[in-house]
UniProtKB/TrEMBL annotation:
Residues annotated for Ca(2+) 2 binding in this entry: 204, 253, 256, 261
Note accompanying the cofactor annotation: Binds 1 heme b (iron(II)-protoporphyrin IX) group per subunit.
The protein's role, per its UniProt record: Removal of H(2)O(2), oxidation of toxic reductants, biosynthesis and degradation of lignin, suberization, auxin catabolism, response to environmental stresses such as wounding, pathogen attack and oxidative stress. These functions might be dependent on each isozyme/isoform in each plant tissue.
Main location as per UniProt: secreted
Lineage, broadest ranks: Eukaryota, Viridiplantae, Streptophyta, Embryophyta, Tracheophyta
Signal peptide annotation: 1-27
Protein name: Peroxidase
Compartments where located: Secreted
Bilayer-spanning residue ranges: none
Plant heme peroxidase family profile domain sequence ranges: 36-335
Homology family: Belongs to the peroxidase family. Ascorbate peroxidase subfamily. Belongs to the peroxidase family. Classical plant (class III) peroxidase subfamily.
């Protein structure tokens, strides 16, 4: 049975408004302690923290155009697995599997960039800035470097001592997910349909390097009269995949793949979304479908919603509040193993 949105746009908008009021009243509590996240968290203990993050990001981005999209993706993949606690950065040990080795993280890169930033920070203000906060700041700077919006990053996170490969395999969205599954997964992280649609706009930059991520979409509707994919787009992608034996490189946004803008949503309106999970957003009669149209027509609205959603995602709490934490001295290992 096909998924149908419930309640209509007005009802969803009401829920969004109620959630916004609740967030405003409660603030963004720090899941690792009694302090609230705050933009000024390091003003006294490491006043140059944000400028250090930015300068190292700029250096890496100048050397490798993939840096900024990679860091944005790295932050997302960290936050969706037991909250934004830098667990994705931990290497495997004799007693712990690494999230880096989970299937959804097979093509994730950028770990060296975060480690480089952390090394600079350790020289300036030792044992002060958490790897989780480094990743949050670097993701913000990555978007700005690509031409996207900026925002004030709320700081004060701590780093977990353990990774959860099992959760990474289970809790990260997949390229073939339906809209219903995406909504469910985001809801589990207290993110609504507006957050889902806005955060998916991160696919306005970056590329996928394997046809396995989208081959179901470009082949499944061949000869079946399907109307969820533009036939010329499907034919082009099939040809590339066959020529490259399944290893074709394809941009998520074919219009401006190196620029953070709203072209991704224009692609969706044209039925030229690369992944099934991308195109599913443009489902008629759903809040996500209406938002796709809004963002395609108005990039300023998309930028504002994306910035708000990034702050909201950056404050996802670990599912287990008793998780032991620290400020790691090296992002890839807990301090007890350093």
């Amino acid at each position: 049975m096909a998924f149908r949105c419930k309640g209509g746009v007005a009802w969803v908008a009401l829920l969004v408004a109620v959630a916004a009021l609740a967030s405003a009243a409660q603030g963004f509590p720090n899941p690792f302690g009694h302090e609230d996240f705050t933009e000024s968290y390091y003003d006294e203990t490491c006043p140059n923290a944000q400028s250090i993050v930015r300068s190292v990001m700029e250096r890496h981005a100048a050397a490798n155009p993939r840096t900024a999209p990679a860091i944005l993706r790295l932050f997302f993949h960290d936050c969706f697995v037991n909250g934004c606690d830098a667990s994705i950065l931990l290497n495997a040990t004799d007693s712990m599997e690494s999230e880096k080795d989970a299937k959804p993280n097979a093509s994730v890169v950028g770990y060296d960039v975060i480690e480089d930033i952390k090394s600079e920070l350790e020289r300036s203000c030792p044992a002060t800035v958490s790897c989780a906060d480094v990743l949050a700041l670097a993701a913000r700077d990555a978007v700005a470097m690509l031409g996207g919006p900026s925002w004030g990053v709320l700081l004060g996170r701590k780093d977990s001592l353990a990774a959860r490969m099992d959760m990474a395999n289970k809790d990260l969205p997949r390229p073939t997910d339906s809209l219903a599954e995406l909504i469910r997964m985001f809801k589990e992280n207290n993110l609504d349909e507006r957050d889902l649609t806005a955060l998916s706009g991160a696919h306005t930059v970056g590329r996928t390097h394997s046809c396995e991520h989208y081959e179901e979409r470009i082949y499944s509707l061949v000869g079946q009269g399907g109307d969820s994919i533009d036939p010329s787009f499907a034919a082009q992608r099939r040809q590339e995949c066959e020529q490259k034996h399944g290893n074709a490189t394809a941009p998520f946004d074919e219009r401006t793949p190196a620029k953070f803008d709203n072209a991704y949503y224009v692609d969706l309106l044209a039925r030229r979304g690369l992944l099934t999970s991308d195109q599913e957003l443009y489902t008629q009669g759903c809040e996500t479908g209406d938002l796709v149209k809004t963002y395609a027509m108005n990039g300023d609205v998309f930028f504002a919603d994306f910035a708000r959603a990034m702050v909201k995602m950056g404050n996802i709490r670990p599912k287990h509040w008793w998780t032991p934490t620290e400020v790691r001295l090296k992002c890839s290992v807990a301090n007890t193993h350093y």
